[in-house]
């Protein structure tokens, strides 16, 4: 009987270890899919931003239309409209459709951000990108590994994002350097916090969708969108401090 008990206990420990390993491997695969989708989105944004700038730099009519005509407002605000519509409708999409819409949104965002090449030098943009990548990686790793519950930060950070959006819209008309500086400082802090918060949330999301491949596929795209926006906003606010203006 004692020998049987020992064998049974060993089998239970082995089975539990196998299940835990399976969950861990599934979580790693889920998170890797999110980071891969995010990286694809950033690559598409970068290519479209530089490509649009190059076309505008060699074609004055395109530059006039994109940056100096009323069309610029559509280019600026279209990504905001699309991302809200995408977030609201993603549960009705297949994972492959959601990925295509996400990449289309990333391309539209690249079109909107192409003007940064007019304002900042290529060296300043590249430097800020690498600073952002290093910061984002460290913050996301913290969110993934920390045992501290970051859920209490969620409502505060969300309200901060709303405040930044409203302040940025107002400053488009006021052109206040003081307000712009304050928004940039708060933006860096808020999106740094959101990077860690969203990463931890995405880990928790896996517990709900891990056994449903279609739901997990949609969650992977939605997670990629959240981290993509965290990265991009962190980059844009850091650019105010580390970018070299032309």
UniProtKB/TrEMBL annotation:
Kindly list any coiled-coil regions of this protein.
Answer: none
Q: Where in the cell is it found?
A: Membrane
Keyword rRNA-binding in annotation: no
Give the stretches traversing the membrane: 38-57, 69-88, 100-119, 125-144, 156-174, 180-198
The record's principal subcellular location, in a coarse class, is membrane
Which Pfam families is this protein grouped with? Bax1-I (PF01027)
Record's keyword annotation contains GTP-binding = no
Q: Which UniProt keywords apply?
A: Membrane, Transmembrane, Transmembrane helix
- This chain belongs to the protein called Bax inhibitor-1/YccA family protein
Q: How does it sit in the membrane?
A: Multi-pass membrane protein
| Similarity field | Belongs to the BI1 family.
GO CC list: plasma membrane
């Amino acid at each position: 009987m004692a020998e049987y008990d020992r064998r049974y206990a060993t089998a239970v420990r082995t089975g539990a270890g196998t299940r835990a390993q399976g969950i861990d491997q599934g979580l790693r695969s889920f998170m890797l899919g999110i980071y891969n989708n995010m990286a694809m989105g950033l690559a598409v944004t970068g290519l479209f931003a530089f490509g649009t700038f190059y076309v505008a730099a060699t074609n004055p009519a395109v530059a006039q239309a994109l940056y100096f005509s009323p069309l610029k407002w559509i280019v600026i605000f279209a990504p905001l409209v699309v991302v809200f519509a995408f977030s609201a409708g993603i549960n009705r999409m297949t994972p492959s459709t959601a990925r295509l819409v996400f990449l289309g949104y990333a391309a539209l965002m690249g079109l909107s951000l192409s003007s940064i090449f007019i304002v900042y030098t290529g060296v300043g943009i590249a430097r800020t990108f690498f600073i952002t990548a290093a910061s984002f990686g460290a913050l996301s790793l913290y969110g993934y590994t920390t045992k501290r519950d970051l859920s209490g930060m969620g409502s505060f950070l969300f309200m901060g994002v709303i405040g930044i959006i409203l302040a940025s819209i107002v400053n488009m008309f006021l052109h206040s350097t003081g307000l712009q500086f304050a928004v940039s400082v708060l933006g860096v802090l808020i999106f740094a916090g959101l990077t860690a918060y969203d990463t931890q949330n995405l880990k928790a999301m896996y517990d709900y969708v891990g056994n449903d491949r279609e739901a997990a596929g949609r969650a992977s795209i939605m997670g990629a969108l959240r981290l993509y926006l965290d990265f991009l906003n962190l980059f844009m606010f850091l650019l105010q401090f580390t970018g070299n203006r032309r």
